[in-house]
Design a protein that fits this description.
about 10% strand, about 120 residues, about 50% helix, Beta-Lactamase, alpha+beta, Sedlin
């Protein structure tokens, strides 16, 4: 299975993008998107965010939302949760850098490595 992970800024610009495949069940960790699917990934993410924004304005209690492809089991759901927790911790460390500019793309190889390590560990 191939995954597309992205972090979107407040101006709807991608701050970080990473494609990877599953490392579980004998996977090699390489994303296998067809060329047509690669171009559609950003479109799908932004379309999903449009729906989230519609719900956000209708519900004042919405704080944050995780968009994931419906996990099929509790084990898969837990793996996604742990992956997102690790990435969130790495993200906070990255943006707390005094040299980070808000809404600027993240090009840190350390952050990319931490996302890749979390993907390999949990997905």
């Amino acid at each position: 299975m191939s995954y597309y992970f992205t972090i979107i800024g407040t101006r709807d610009n991608p701050l970080f993008e990473h494609e990877f495949g599953t490392s579980k069940a004998g996977g090699d960790g390489i994303a296998r998107f067809r060329d047509e699917a690669r171009h559609m990934n950003q479109f799908i993410v932004h379309s999903s965010l449009d729906i989230v924004e519609e719900v956000q304005w209708g519900n004042n209690g919405l704080q944050s939302t995780l968009l994931a492809n419906n996990p099929s089991s509790a084990q898969t759901e837990e793996a996604v949760r742990q992956f997102m927790t690790d990435v969130y911790e790495a993200w906070i460390k990255c943006i707390m850098n005094p040299f980070y500019v808000v809404n600027a793309p993240v090009t840190s190889p350390v952050f990319r490595g931490r996302v890749a390590a979390a993907a390999k560990k949990y997905l």
